[in-house]
Amino acid sequence: MEIQLPFNFISLLLFISLIFSLIKLWKKSKNPKTNKNLPPSPPALPLIGHLHHLLGGALPHVSIRKLSQKYGPIMYLQLGEVPAVIISSPQLAKHALKLHDPSCADRPQSIVSEIMYYHSTDIAFSPYGAYWKQMREICIFEMLSPKNVRSFGSIRIDEASRLIESIRGCSG
Fold first, then answer.
1. Residue 75: its pLDDT value, please?
2. What percent of the chain has pLDDT over 90?
3. CA dist., res. 52 & res. 78, Å (int)
4. What's the pTM value of the predicted model, to 2 decimals?
5. Closest by alpha carbon to 50, among 24, 71, 76, 12?
6. Rounded mean pLDDT of the chain?
7. How far is Cα 43 from Cα 109, in angstroms, rounded to an integer?
8. Ramachandran quadrant class, 5 (left: phi over 0; alpha: psi -120 to 50; beta: rest)
9. Region 93-108: what's the mean pLDDT?
10. SS3 for 112?
């Protein structure tokens, strides 16, 4: 004998999505200033954001060009969980990079860089600031000085010739 439940699976999914939508609307009504200063953006889907506009068949850069023709040279895209402001005009990009250079130079923090790179203390994953500038100076003056670069010249030539021989061996 089967037990009949009052809801089937589709009804349950619709009910859960209705609850999430109501919670989202409630949070949005409590904090109306969150999206006030954002540039225009195309309609987004709940979990993937605007990814469906970029992966809709055309190449992503072609899709961004089409979106910029419709929404202007500055637009906001939500790429999954990552918010992004797209600037498609060279003049506006130059202006934005001049005004907000430290904001654009900073790297996003991730759990991988925290675990594998000792709390982001290496030069590749450290946040932009005094520590990064100090690490860059050490790298330039100690590792990439003309004397050190010349001292490894023979090794670079040997490795390049090995690479060429390896490619020749693979090609036939």
1. 94
2. 29
3. 10
4. 0.54
5. 76
6. 84
7. 28
8. beta
9. 83
10. helix
Secondary structure of 85-101 as H, E, C letters:
EEECCHHHHHHHHHHCH
- 83 phi and psi angles, rounded to 5 deg: -80, 145
Burial string for 80-114 (b: 16+ CB within 10 Å, else e) reads: eeeeeebbbeeeeeeebeeeeeeeeeeeeeeeebe
Pure H helices in 31-145: 51-54, 60-71, 90-99, 101-105, 111-116, 130-138
Provide long-range contacts, Cβ within 8 A and 24+ apart, for 56-65: 64/88
**143 vs 136: CA distance, rounded Å:** 10
What separation, in Å, do the N-terminal and C-terminal C-alpha atoms of the chain show? 70
d(CA 57, CA 63): 9
> CA-CA distance, 109 to 82, in Å (whole number)?
12
Q: Distance (Å, rounded) from C-alpha 20 to C-alpha 17?
A: 5
